[in-house]
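Lab notebook, bench 4. The sequencing result for the construct came back, and we need a structural model before the next group meeting so we can plan mutations. Quick request posted to the team channel:

Model the 3D structure of this chain.
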Amino acid sequence: MSLTLLVLALGVLEPQASPARPAVTIERPSWSEAVRCAGLTQAASELDGDTDGARDAGDAKRLYDAGLYWSLTAMQASQAGGRTAEAAEAAQTRSRLEALDQLRDESSEARRELSRCLTRTPALG
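Done. Here's the predicted structure in token form:
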């Protein structure tokens, strides 16, 4: 049997691959956006914990998951930009402290930004 026939035979005998899923395009946020969203979501989660269970457990999980997602996203963006882990952590801490003040003061702009960050957070399960 020739090599060509062997290759063709193997191609026919192999199980068919499942249909390809449509490609999903994920827009990577900028470093500053990732840090801001990390700060906002972490601050909102922290403030949510201060309400003595007044919020729904689902809301608390959503805020926690968003804080985790944006923190990891900010760390990835920092690595891609050549920043150190220490610099990335410091930037997130500054952003969280700023966001705490803004959310406590009920800043409408901070609330709008938080809403945008939550909208862009993928479901983590």
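Residues 28-119 form one domain.
Will bring this to the meeting.
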